[in-house]
């Protein structure tokens, strides 16, 4: 099997894991098995540096890296590859837009590619971060233009992207106006001063007072 094919195979597995993690549909019993083969990278930082920058132990980092280090040591994921990967898992819908948003959330240095370090840093927050760190990450996902505010339009874009990706898998079939209705409900709760945008403080305050959100924030702690 060529290096390119091996890389794509491993990225496919990671993309499936990542989507299930972010959307809360991950079966935590199989997390370690999936993570063993679920990373892609370039020349990575030393384990000591990554251990210092994340909440993963040296052994956990070795598990994360082991699946592909001997198969494709120069692997880098660009946005188009990331979109192709997601399309494989959601053939019934259109996943390109959601994959774009998710890619940008992980591409924190905005260089157009994702490395092993990018994935590990993101996973460290999602799996082991504090509530504040996880909510900051989620806010960054919704803050599409990175101006420090979430608008209704940005939240609607994310919602539509998720529904488009799920396609015909939703039951009952969602009406066209459903995403906008959900956004209106969220904004009514989050936009405390009614200025038409949600700040990071409003977002965090609302989420911290929502039992369902808090429960999901704790779900993936210590799964490795």
Model description:
This protein has 224 residues and is mostly helical. The protein has twelve helices and four strands. Helix 1 packs across helix 5 (79-89), helix 5 (79-89) packs across helix 6 (96-106) and helix 6 packs across helix 8 (131-142).
Which segments are poorly predicted (pLDDT under 50) over 5 or more consecutive residues?
19-41
Terminal CA distance? 29 Å
Net shape: globular
Oligomer: single chain
Structural class: mainly alpha
- Annotation field: number of helices: 12
DSSP E strands, number: 4
Biggest β-sheet strands, sense, barrel: 2 strands, antiparallel
Share of residues in strands: under 5%
Assign a percent range to the helix content: 55-70%
* Rounded Rg: 18 Å
Summarize model confidence as the mean pLDDT: 75
What key attributes describe this structure?
single chain; 224 residues; mainly alpha; two-stranded antiparallel ribbon; 12 helices; globular
How would you summarize this macromolecular structure in one to three sentences?
The protein is mostly helical and 224 residues long.
């Amino acid at each position: 099997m060529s290096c390119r094919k091996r890389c794509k195979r491993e990225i496919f597995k990671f993309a499936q894991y990542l989507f299930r993690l972010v959307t809360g549909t991950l079966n935590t019993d199989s997390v370690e098995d999936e993570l063993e083969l679920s990373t892609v990278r370039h020349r990575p930082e030393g384990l000591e540096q990554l251990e210092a920058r994340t909440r993963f132990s040296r052994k956990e980092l070795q598990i994360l890296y082991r699946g592909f280090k001997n198969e494709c040591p120069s692997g880098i994921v660009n946005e188009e590859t990331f979109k192709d990967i997601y399309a494989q898992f959601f053939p019934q819908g259109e996943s390109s837009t959601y994959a774009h948003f998710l890619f940008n959330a992980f591409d924190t240095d905005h260089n157009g590619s994702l490395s092993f370090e990018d994935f590990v840093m993101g996973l460290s927050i999602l799996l082991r971060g504090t509530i504040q760190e996880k909510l900051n990450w989620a806010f960054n996902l919704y803050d599409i233009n990175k101006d420090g505010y979430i608008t209704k339009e940005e939240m609607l874009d994310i919602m539509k992207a998720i529904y488009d990706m799920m396609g015909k898998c939703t039951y009952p079939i969602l009406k066209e106006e459903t995403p906008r209705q959900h956004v209106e409900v969220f904004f009514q709760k989050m936009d405390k001063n009614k200025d038409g945008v949600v700040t990071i403080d409003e977002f965090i305050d609302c989420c911290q007072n929502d039992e369902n959100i808090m429960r999901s924030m704790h779900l993936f702690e210590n799964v490795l």
